[in-house]
Design a protein that fits this description.
Elements: E1 9-12, H1 22-37, E2 41-46, H2 58-69, E3 78-79, H3 84-96, E4 100-103, H4 107-112, E5 143-146, E6 153-157, E7 161-165, H5 167-170, E8 175-177, H6 185-195, E9 200-204, H7 211-221, E10 227-231, H8 256-266, H9 278-293
Parallel strand pairs: 1-2, 2-3, 9-10
Antiparallel strand pairs: 4-5, 5-8, 6-7
Helix pairs in contact: 1-8, 1-9, 3-6, 6-7
């Protein structure tokens, strides 16, 4: 199996808003297999920065579920709620270099400026509170936003191929710290990936459109860019992504090997034995993953 330099470090980073279900098992298994197939380390980070949406005990429940599947992290689990000092430092750095600024706009105000957007299209921030446009206009600051650089952001995904997005046009200056004082996902994930030395991000394809924003933050903060691999999604009967929000049930802990086998099939791994014990099955799955993905690896850092 190939070994890369710097050493491979991957992660599984669920938000503990509900127990693991079929879709999240696919993401967990895919990230674990990729780390093992490339002789790397696999970390688990619980992204509980949005504390009101993370009931007590669910993080521990997810860790227990991973143990049932035999997916054990190689280091201590990280909790975002305990690393907020990292985000404070990063935001202060961006502000000092005029790469972040306070914003007074509400969602209602932004929605009123974009009446023609579809239900599934996120609000695009037009730069209303940029300092060169008058700043807060005498209103109190609510959030902090990142000053998005102009131009099209390009990157390469190991499964999806060449990708690009005009972040200014499609997203605008995005939030780093929310109006309620909580840290935004984009800043937290970038800072934590940098702090943990993550070289490979393997996650669901619903998060692919976050990648250009995260690359821009990595560049602004002087952090290396990891490789990206966005996995196929598991869909609910209505065609939407299977998620906790649409009632996805926890996976069947009574049959962990069957759960793993189904997840492997979603990842394109076929021909794995159904009668093996869990350890042997995982070892064979690692070999199958290595055979399937070894030709898709670009240099770790762009």
């Amino acid at each position: 199996m190939p070994v890369f330099s710097p050493p491979y470090v991957g992660r599984f980073a669920p938000s503990p808003t509900g127990p693991l279900h079929t879709g999240s098992v696919v993401a967990a298994l895919g990230s674990w297999l990729d780390a093992r197939a490339h002789a790397g380390r696999w970390l688990v980070r619980l992204e509980d920065v949005d504390t009101p949406r993370c009931p007590a005990g669910l993080g521990e429940e997810i860790l227990r579920q991973l143990a049932v599947l035999g997916l054990q992290p190689d280091d201590a689990v990280t909790w975002q709620s305990k690393t907020s000092a990292r985000y404070e430092t990063a935001l202060a750095d961006l502000v000092a270099r005029n790469l972040a600024y306070p914003c007074a706009c509400t969602r209602k105000e932004l929605a009123a400026t974009q009446p023609d957007r579809t239900r599934h299209h996120a609000l695009t921030y037009p730069g209303t509170c940029r300092p060169e446009r008058g700043g807060l206009h005498g209103r109190p600051a609510r959030a902090w936003r990142f000053r998005v650089p102009s131009g099209v952001q390009q990157w390469n995904d190991r499964r999806l191929g060449p990708m690009e997005q005009d972040v200014v046009r499609d997203v605008g200056d995005f939030v780093l710290r929310r109006a309620d004082g909580l840290w935004a996902y984009q800043l937290a994930v970038v800072v934590d990936d940098g702090a943990q030395g993550i070289t490979d991000v393997v996650r669901g394809s619903d998060l692919a459109d976050n990648t250009p924003r995260q690359i821009q933050l990595q560049q602004a903060l002087g952090l290396p860019r990891p490789r990206y691999l966005h996995l196929p999604l598991v869909l609910a009967p209505d065609g939407q992504k299977l998620s906790k929000q649409n009632g996805a049930a926890p996976f069947d802990e009574g049959h962990p090997l069957a759960v793993l086998h189904e997840a492997a099939g979603r990842l394109g791994l076929t021909g794995l034995p159904t009668g093996a014990n869990r350890s042997d099955w995982l070892a064979q799955a690692v070999r199958a993953w290595a055979d399937q993905t070894q030709s898709t690896m670009d240099p770790v850092f762009d």
